[in-house]
TrEMBL record:
One of its GO terms (molecular function) is metal ion binding. The lineage of its organism: Bacteria, Bacillati, Bacillota, Bacilli, Bacillales. It comes from Effusibacillus lacus. CDD domains: Fe-ADH. Gene3D superfamilies: 3.40.50.1970, Dehydroquinate synthase-like - alpha domain (1.20.1090.10). Belongs to the iron-containing alcohol dehydrogenase family. This is Alcohol dehydrogenase. Residues 186-377 form the Fe-containing alcohol dehydrogenase-like C-terminal domain. Residues 7-174 form the Alcohol dehydrogenase iron-type/glycerol dehydrogenase GldA domain.
Length: 388
Protein backbone atom coordinates (compact mmCIF):
# COMPACT_ATOMS: atom_id res chain seq x y z
CA UNK A 1 0.00 0.00 0.00
CA UNK A 2 1.22 3.51 -0.80
CA UNK A 3 0.02 6.97 0.06
CA UNK A 4 0.62 10.53 -1.08
CA UNK A 5 0.35 13.25 1.54
CA UNK A 6 2.01 16.55 0.70
CA UNK A 7 0.50 19.31 2.79
CA UNK A 8 3.04 21.87 1.59
CA UNK A 9 2.50 24.78 -0.75
CA UNK A 10 5.48 25.47 -3.01
CA UNK A 11 6.14 29.00 -4.27
CA UNK A 12 8.91 29.22 -6.82
CA UNK A 13 10.59 31.64 -9.18
CA UNK A 14 13.14 34.44 -9.16
CA UNK A 15 12.53 36.81 -6.21
CA UNK A 16 9.77 34.60 -4.78
CA UNK A 17 11.41 34.99 -1.34
CA UNK A 18 10.57 38.70 -1.12
CA UNK A 19 6.89 37.86 -0.60
CA UNK A 20 7.74 36.20 2.71
CA UNK A 21 6.29 39.01 4.80
CA UNK A 22 2.80 38.55 3.39
CA UNK A 23 3.12 34.76 3.83
CA UNK A 24 3.63 35.18 7.57
CA UNK A 25 0.90 37.83 7.70
CA UNK A 26 -1.55 35.35 6.22
CA UNK A 27 -0.43 32.80 8.83
CA UNK A 28 -1.32 35.46 11.46
CA UNK A 29 2.24 35.59 12.80
CA UNK A 30 3.51 38.80 14.38
CA UNK A 31 7.05 37.82 15.45
CA UNK A 32 9.16 35.30 13.57
CA UNK A 33 12.36 33.52 14.60
CA UNK A 34 14.61 33.42 11.53
CA UNK A 35 16.89 30.36 11.67
CA UNK A 36 19.99 30.68 9.55
CA UNK A 37 23.78 30.49 9.55
CA UNK A 38 26.68 32.92 9.28
CA UNK A 39 27.43 31.98 5.66
CA UNK A 40 23.91 32.93 4.54
CA UNK A 41 24.05 36.18 6.53
CA UNK A 42 27.52 37.16 5.26
CA UNK A 43 26.38 36.54 1.66
CA UNK A 44 23.62 39.12 2.24
CA UNK A 45 20.87 36.61 1.47
CA UNK A 46 18.71 37.71 4.40
CA UNK A 47 18.60 41.42 3.52
CA UNK A 48 15.56 41.40 1.21
CA UNK A 49 13.83 38.72 3.28
CA UNK A 50 14.09 40.72 6.51
CA UNK A 51 12.91 43.84 4.67
CA UNK A 52 9.90 41.94 3.35
CA UNK A 53 9.02 40.90 6.91
CA UNK A 54 9.46 44.46 8.20
CA UNK A 55 7.37 45.89 5.33
CA UNK A 56 4.57 43.48 6.29
CA UNK A 57 4.89 44.60 9.94
CA UNK A 58 6.13 41.18 11.02
CA UNK A 59 8.82 41.48 13.66
CA UNK A 60 11.85 39.18 13.29
CA UNK A 61 14.68 37.96 15.51
CA UNK A 62 17.65 36.03 14.21
CA UNK A 63 18.94 32.70 15.51
CA UNK A 64 22.22 32.27 13.63
CA UNK A 65 24.06 29.66 15.71
CA UNK A 66 23.20 26.81 13.35
CA UNK A 67 26.03 24.29 13.07
CA UNK A 68 26.58 21.66 10.35
CA UNK A 69 24.86 18.39 11.30
CA UNK A 70 22.89 20.14 14.09
CA UNK A 71 23.16 18.53 17.50
CA UNK A 72 20.86 18.46 20.52
CA UNK A 73 22.45 21.57 22.05
CA UNK A 74 21.92 23.60 18.86
CA UNK A 75 18.23 22.73 18.51
CA UNK A 76 17.54 23.24 22.23
CA UNK A 77 19.21 26.67 22.05
CA UNK A 78 16.97 27.59 19.12
CA UNK A 79 13.89 26.47 21.09
CA UNK A 80 14.96 28.50 24.16
CA UNK A 81 15.58 31.55 21.97
CA UNK A 82 12.11 31.24 20.39
CA UNK A 83 10.44 31.00 23.79
CA UNK A 84 12.44 33.83 25.39
CA UNK A 85 11.67 36.11 22.42
CA UNK A 86 7.96 35.17 22.48
CA UNK A 87 7.88 34.33 18.78
CA UNK A 88 4.86 32.84 17.03
CA UNK A 89 6.37 31.57 13.79
CA UNK A 90 9.62 30.18 12.35
CA UNK A 91 11.42 30.99 9.11
CA UNK A 92 14.33 28.76 8.05
CA UNK A 93 16.71 30.24 5.48
CA UNK A 94 19.67 28.09 4.53
CA UNK A 95 20.77 24.58 3.70
CA UNK A 96 19.67 21.35 5.32
CA UNK A 97 21.27 22.21 8.67
CA UNK A 98 19.26 25.43 9.07
CA UNK A 99 15.98 23.89 7.95
CA UNK A 100 16.49 20.79 10.11
CA UNK A 101 17.37 22.97 13.13
CA UNK A 102 14.19 24.99 12.59
CA UNK A 103 12.08 21.83 12.34
CA UNK A 104 13.62 20.19 15.43
CA UNK A 105 13.30 23.41 17.45
CA UNK A 106 9.67 23.62 16.31
CA UNK A 107 9.04 20.08 17.53
CA UNK A 108 10.60 20.94 20.91
CA UNK A 109 8.47 24.09 21.26
CA UNK A 110 5.16 22.22 21.09
CA UNK A 111 6.21 18.87 22.56
CA UNK A 112 7.67 18.18 26.01
CA UNK A 113 9.81 15.12 25.13
CA UNK A 114 13.57 15.41 24.54
CA UNK A 115 14.33 15.62 20.80
CA UNK A 116 16.06 12.21 20.61
CA UNK A 117 13.00 10.58 22.20
CA UNK A 118 11.05 11.72 19.13
CA UNK A 119 13.41 9.72 16.90
CA UNK A 120 11.76 7.33 14.46
CA UNK A 121 8.33 7.55 12.90
CA UNK A 122 5.26 9.27 14.25
CA UNK A 123 6.56 10.25 17.69
CA UNK A 124 5.97 14.00 17.33
CA UNK A 125 2.59 14.29 19.05
CA UNK A 126 1.70 17.95 18.51
CA UNK A 127 1.84 20.21 15.42
CA UNK A 128 4.73 22.67 15.17
CA UNK A 129 4.38 26.48 15.16
CA UNK A 130 3.91 27.86 11.61
CA UNK A 131 7.13 27.11 9.72
CA UNK A 132 8.24 28.32 6.29
CA UNK A 133 11.47 27.12 4.67
CA UNK A 134 13.59 28.88 2.07
CA UNK A 135 16.46 26.68 0.84
CA UNK A 136 19.73 28.32 -0.22
CA UNK A 137 21.35 25.12 -1.53
CA UNK A 138 20.21 22.58 -4.11
CA UNK A 139 20.36 19.38 -2.09
CA UNK A 140 18.47 18.92 1.12
CA UNK A 141 14.84 18.77 0.03
CA UNK A 142 14.10 19.40 3.71
CA UNK A 143 11.82 22.29 2.70
CA UNK A 144 9.23 19.69 1.61
CA UNK A 145 10.09 16.59 3.63
CA UNK A 146 8.60 15.07 6.77
CA UNK A 147 11.98 14.47 8.38
CA UNK A 148 14.62 16.27 10.41
CA UNK A 149 17.94 14.79 11.51
CA UNK A 150 19.62 15.64 14.83
CA UNK A 151 23.03 14.31 15.92
CA UNK A 152 22.99 12.82 19.43
CA UNK A 153 25.78 12.71 22.04
CA UNK A 154 27.03 9.40 20.58
CA UNK A 155 27.48 10.96 17.09
CA UNK A 156 24.41 9.05 15.85
CA UNK A 157 22.24 11.01 13.45
CA UNK A 158 18.72 10.52 14.75
CA UNK A 159 16.01 10.81 12.07
CA UNK A 160 12.72 12.22 13.36
CA UNK A 161 9.87 11.53 10.94
CA UNK A 162 6.41 13.07 11.17
CA UNK A 163 3.95 14.83 8.86
CA UNK A 164 4.05 17.71 11.36
CA UNK A 165 7.63 18.39 10.23
CA UNK A 166 6.57 19.34 6.70
CA UNK A 167 6.78 23.15 6.44
CA UNK A 168 3.60 25.12 5.71
CA UNK A 169 5.24 26.74 2.67
CA UNK A 170 8.46 26.07 0.75
CA UNK A 171 9.75 29.11 -1.12
CA UNK A 172 12.20 28.33 -3.94
CA UNK A 173 14.05 31.47 -5.05
CA UNK A 174 16.95 30.66 -7.40
CA UNK A 175 18.43 34.13 -6.78
CA UNK A 176 19.51 32.87 -3.37
CA UNK A 177 21.78 30.25 -4.95
CA UNK A 178 23.80 32.56 -7.16
CA UNK A 179 26.54 33.08 -4.55
CA UNK A 180 26.78 29.38 -3.66
CA UNK A 181 30.39 28.18 -4.21
CA UNK A 182 30.79 25.55 -6.98
CA UNK A 183 31.92 22.92 -4.47
CA UNK A 184 28.65 23.34 -2.55
CA UNK A 185 26.54 23.25 -5.72
CA UNK A 186 28.32 19.98 -6.53
CA UNK A 187 28.04 18.39 -3.08
CA UNK A 188 24.45 19.41 -2.37
CA UNK A 189 23.44 18.55 -5.94
CA UNK A 190 24.89 15.07 -5.55
CA UNK A 191 22.90 14.71 -2.32
CA UNK A 192 19.74 15.52 -4.28
CA UNK A 193 20.72 13.02 -6.98
CA UNK A 194 21.24 10.40 -4.27
CA UNK A 195 17.78 11.12 -2.82
CA UNK A 196 16.16 10.56 -6.20
CA UNK A 197 18.16 7.43 -7.06
CA UNK A 198 17.52 5.81 -3.68
CA UNK A 199 13.80 6.68 -3.72
CA UNK A 200 13.46 5.24 -7.23
CA UNK A 201 15.36 2.00 -6.67
CA UNK A 202 14.52 0.93 -3.11
CA UNK A 203 11.97 -1.75 -2.24
CA UNK A 204 9.09 0.62 -1.55
CA UNK A 205 6.73 1.00 -4.47
CA UNK A 206 5.15 4.40 -5.01
CA UNK A 207 4.48 5.51 -8.58
CA UNK A 208 4.21 9.17 -7.60
CA UNK A 209 7.60 9.05 -5.86
CA UNK A 210 9.09 7.30 -8.90
CA UNK A 211 7.72 9.93 -11.26
CA UNK A 212 9.23 12.74 -9.17
CA UNK A 213 12.52 10.86 -8.83
CA UNK A 214 12.93 10.20 -12.56
CA UNK A 215 12.24 13.84 -13.41
CA UNK A 216 14.67 14.98 -10.69
CA UNK A 217 17.42 12.66 -12.01
CA UNK A 218 16.85 13.96 -15.56
CA UNK A 219 17.04 17.59 -14.47
CA UNK A 220 20.09 17.09 -12.24
CA UNK A 221 21.90 15.09 -14.94
CA UNK A 222 21.52 18.00 -17.34
CA UNK A 223 21.95 20.93 -14.97
CA UNK A 224 24.51 19.97 -12.33
CA UNK A 225 27.62 20.57 -14.45
CA UNK A 226 26.63 24.05 -15.75
CA UNK A 227 25.25 24.97 -12.32
CA UNK A 228 28.54 24.02 -10.63
CA UNK A 229 30.50 25.91 -13.28
CA UNK A 230 29.05 29.13 -11.81
CA UNK A 231 27.08 32.11 -13.06
CA UNK A 232 24.28 30.12 -14.70
CA UNK A 233 20.99 31.11 -13.09
CA UNK A 234 18.92 28.87 -15.37
CA UNK A 235 20.95 25.78 -14.39
CA UNK A 236 20.82 26.77 -10.71
CA UNK A 237 17.04 27.17 -10.97
CA UNK A 238 16.73 23.68 -12.42
CA UNK A 239 18.93 22.26 -9.68
CA UNK A 240 16.84 23.97 -7.00
CA UNK A 241 13.54 22.71 -8.42
CA UNK A 242 15.00 19.24 -8.99
CA UNK A 243 16.26 19.03 -5.40
CA UNK A 244 12.75 19.81 -4.15
CA UNK A 245 11.30 17.15 -6.47
CA UNK A 246 13.88 14.69 -5.13
CA UNK A 247 12.81 15.69 -1.61
CA UNK A 248 9.20 14.91 -2.49
CA UNK A 249 10.27 11.54 -3.90
CA UNK A 250 12.07 10.44 -0.76
CA UNK A 251 9.48 11.78 1.64
CA UNK A 252 7.07 9.42 -0.16
CA UNK A 253 9.41 6.50 -0.72
CA UNK A 254 12.35 6.91 1.74
CA UNK A 255 16.00 6.17 0.90
CA UNK A 256 18.52 3.31 0.97
CA UNK A 257 22.03 2.13 1.85
CA UNK A 258 23.86 5.30 0.75
CA UNK A 259 22.14 7.36 3.44
CA UNK A 260 22.36 4.55 6.00
CA UNK A 261 26.17 4.51 5.50
CA UNK A 262 26.75 8.24 5.00
CA UNK A 263 25.13 9.38 8.23
CA UNK A 264 27.75 7.60 10.40
CA UNK A 265 30.51 9.12 8.24
CA UNK A 266 29.16 12.61 8.86
CA UNK A 267 28.37 11.85 12.50
CA UNK A 268 31.77 10.37 13.40
CA UNK A 269 34.15 12.03 10.93
CA UNK A 270 32.40 15.32 10.13
CA UNK A 271 32.37 14.76 6.37
CA UNK A 272 29.69 17.03 4.81
CA UNK A 273 26.53 15.07 4.03
CA UNK A 274 26.58 15.73 0.28
CA UNK A 275 30.26 14.78 -0.06
CA UNK A 276 29.77 11.55 1.93
CA UNK A 277 26.80 10.60 -0.27
CA UNK A 278 28.58 11.48 -3.50
CA UNK A 279 31.59 9.29 -2.62
CA UNK A 280 29.39 6.35 -1.57
CA UNK A 281 26.80 6.60 -4.35
CA UNK A 282 28.61 4.74 -7.18
CA UNK A 283 29.81 2.00 -4.80
CA UNK A 284 26.31 1.39 -3.48
CA UNK A 285 24.78 1.56 -6.98
CA UNK A 286 27.32 -1.05 -8.12
CA UNK A 287 26.59 -3.26 -5.08
CA UNK A 288 22.81 -2.86 -5.39
CA UNK A 289 22.59 -3.33 -9.14
CA UNK A 290 21.74 -7.03 -9.05
CA UNK A 291 18.92 -6.29 -6.62
CA UNK A 292 17.06 -4.00 -9.01
CA UNK A 293 18.66 -3.91 -12.49
CA UNK A 294 15.51 -2.45 -14.08
CA UNK A 295 15.48 0.37 -11.53
CA UNK A 296 19.13 1.22 -12.15
CA UNK A 297 18.55 1.04 -15.91
CA UNK A 298 15.82 3.67 -15.41
CA UNK A 299 18.37 5.79 -13.50
CA UNK A 300 20.80 5.44 -16.40
CA UNK A 301 18.19 6.42 -19.00
CA UNK A 302 17.18 9.45 -16.93
CA UNK A 303 20.87 10.42 -16.89
CA UNK A 304 20.83 10.34 -20.68
CA UNK A 305 22.35 6.91 -21.34
CA UNK A 306 21.13 5.48 -24.65
CA UNK A 307 22.00 2.64 -27.00
CA UNK A 308 23.28 0.02 -24.54
CA UNK A 309 22.35 -3.58 -25.17
CA UNK A 310 20.12 -4.85 -22.41
CA UNK A 311 19.14 -3.86 -18.91
CA UNK A 312 22.39 -4.82 -17.16
CA UNK A 313 24.63 -2.94 -19.59
CA UNK A 314 22.38 0.11 -19.36
CA UNK A 315 22.36 -0.04 -15.56
CA UNK A 316 26.15 -0.40 -15.48
CA UNK A 317 26.53 2.62 -17.76
CA UNK A 318 24.51 4.60 -15.21
CA UNK A 319 27.05 3.76 -12.51
CA UNK A 320 29.87 4.82 -14.85
CA UNK A 321 28.02 8.08 -15.51
CA UNK A 322 27.88 8.83 -11.77
CA UNK A 323 31.60 8.02 -11.42
CA UNK A 324 32.33 10.48 -14.24
CA UNK A 325 30.04 13.09 -12.72
CA UNK A 326 31.88 12.91 -9.38
CA UNK A 327 35.20 13.29 -11.17
CA UNK A 328 34.07 16.24 -13.30
CA UNK A 329 32.56 18.00 -10.28
CA UNK A 330 35.73 17.65 -8.21
CA UNK A 331 34.17 15.41 -5.56
CA UNK A 332 36.97 13.80 -3.49
CA UNK A 333 37.74 10.29 -4.72
CA UNK A 334 37.91 8.53 -1.38
CA UNK A 335 37.14 8.84 2.32
CA UNK A 336 40.89 8.71 2.99
CA UNK A 337 41.10 12.00 1.06
CA UNK A 338 38.63 13.70 3.42
CA UNK A 339 40.21 12.55 6.68
CA UNK A 340 38.11 9.53 7.67
CA UNK A 341 40.06 7.10 9.87
CA UNK A 342 39.79 3.33 9.42
CA UNK A 343 39.51 2.78 13.17
CA UNK A 344 36.02 4.33 12.97
CA UNK A 345 34.71 1.53 10.75
CA UNK A 346 33.40 -0.79 13.53
CA UNK A 347 31.26 1.99 15.04
CA UNK A 348 30.15 3.19 11.61
CA UNK A 349 29.10 -0.33 10.62
CA UNK A 350 27.09 -0.71 13.83
CA UNK A 351 25.34 2.62 13.26
CA UNK A 352 24.60 1.81 9.61
CA UNK A 353 22.33 -0.99 10.78
CA UNK A 354 20.39 1.34 13.10
CA UNK A 355 18.98 3.00 9.98
CA UNK A 356 15.53 2.00 8.77
CA UNK A 357 16.82 2.52 5.22
CA UNK A 358 18.81 -0.75 5.34
CA UNK A 359 15.65 -2.88 5.35
CA UNK A 360 14.30 -1.22 2.20
CA UNK A 361 17.60 -1.30 0.30
CA UNK A 362 17.12 -3.14 -3.02
CA UNK A 363 19.73 -5.75 -2.09
CA UNK A 364 19.95 -7.51 1.25
CA UNK A 365 23.07 -6.29 3.01
CA UNK A 366 25.31 -7.89 5.66
CA UNK A 367 27.84 -6.32 8.02
CA UNK A 368 30.59 -7.78 5.81
CA UNK A 369 29.07 -6.08 2.74
CA UNK A 370 29.05 -2.72 4.52
CA UNK A 371 32.64 -3.25 5.64
CA UNK A 372 33.71 -4.01 2.05
CA UNK A 373 31.96 -0.86 0.75
CA UNK A 374 33.51 1.32 3.50
CA UNK A 375 36.96 -0.15 2.80
CA UNK A 376 36.70 0.26 -0.98
CA UNK A 377 35.40 3.82 -0.72
CA UNK A 378 38.07 4.62 1.87
CA UNK A 379 40.84 3.39 -0.41
CA UNK A 380 39.32 4.84 -3.60
CA UNK A 381 39.07 1.44 -5.33
CA UNK A 382 37.00 1.25 -8.52
CA UNK A 383 33.29 1.47 -7.61
CA UNK A 384 32.64 -1.08 -10.37
CA UNK A 385 34.18 -3.85 -8.23
CA UNK A 386 30.78 -5.46 -7.66
CA UNK A 387 29.85 -5.73 -11.33
CA UNK A 388 33.10 -6.43 -13.16
FE1 LIG B 1 20.54 13.43 1.92
Amino acid sequence: MSSIHLPVRIEFGLDSSITIGSEFRSLKCSKVMVVSDKGVINAGLLDKILKSLADAKVESVLYDNVVPDPDVKCVEQARDFYISERCDGILAVGGGSSIDTAKAAGALITNSEPIVSMGGMGKVKNPLPPLIAIPTTCGTGSEVTNVTVVTDEYHFKVPIISPYLIPKVAVLDPNLLTSLPPSLVAATGMDALTHAIEALTNKLENWYADMCAIKAIEMIGKAIRPAAAGGNVKALSEMLYASTLAGISFTLSRLGLVHAMSHPISGFAGVPHGVANAILLPYVMSFNLVGNPEGYALVAKALGIVGRSGVLETAKAGVEEVIGLNHQLGIPKSFKDVGVKENLFPQMITDTFKSGNVAINPRRVSEKDVEIIYQASFAGDSPLLFIE
